Amino acid sequence: MTNKSYAGYCTSPDFKERLAQCRGIIVVCGSCEQHGHHLPLDTDNIIGMELALRIAEQTDMLVMPPVNYGQVWSAKGFPGTVCLSAQTLKQILREIITALEQQGARNIVLMSGHNGNYPFLKELARELLDDYGWQNIWHFPVISMAFSKELTSKAKAPVPTVAVHAGEMETAMLLYLRPELVDLSRASAEFPEPPADYPYRPMHWDQFVTSGSFGKGAAATAEFGREICEHAVQTCAELIRKLVKYGPEASD
Ligand SMILES: [Zn+2]
Hints:
By secondary structure, this protein is an alpha/beta fold. The protein has a single domain, classed as Rossmann fold. Helices cover 40% and strands 8% of the residues. The chain has eight helices and six strands, in the order H-E-H-E-H-E-H-E-H-H-H-E-E-H. The strands form two sheets. A four-stranded parallel sheet has the order 2-1-3-4, with helices on both faces. The longest helix is centred in the C-terminal third of the chain and has 22 residues, at 222-243. The protein is globular. It binds zinc ion. Zinc ion (ZN) is lined by residues 35, 43-44, 114, 165, 170.
């Protein structure tokens, strides 16, 4: 990463100066999670950070070093998946946010490269409002924006509704962002049918998916990945510019 929006590459005095001027801070969490046989465990971390850095450039924000583990209960049965409890994930983020609040961050935007983290990001923002009255904590579901209905309909292979995970769309994003980490020759084509009781009781994915991926990863292209990533960045950046005010905008 050579992006000037990455706070991890700032010196301490430079960070202080940027913090005072910028719209706010983006905190990304991701996951250490199996993504089939053709994508790396780091997939959600790469996607989360790459989207956040592009969004930050367009919105005058800074991106903190990420939390590279998340809540991945469903994929627990696969090698390499490491799941934080929701309680631990929220506690880590709570302490990061508290430090940034104490240093004077105007706004703090929570993002995730992994959809399963979002319910807890929202829950945490609510708790911080109740506990401290902090109204400057935001959560933008950038992954839902990436997997919009419109873009899903452009996929070449069917996109399973059970989970958008390590299939054509996510593979396309990684092919665009980090092609050297994708091995399409190992991608499976799996369209799992979960048991009828799946929506009504807890069930790990390894009970009904063999490879860990949903859909046909080999149908992915880098060009489709570029389209998905650009759509997510543009949608999220527009929302942030509209809603997360700072400086002269704040008095609009
Ligand atoms: Zn993922």
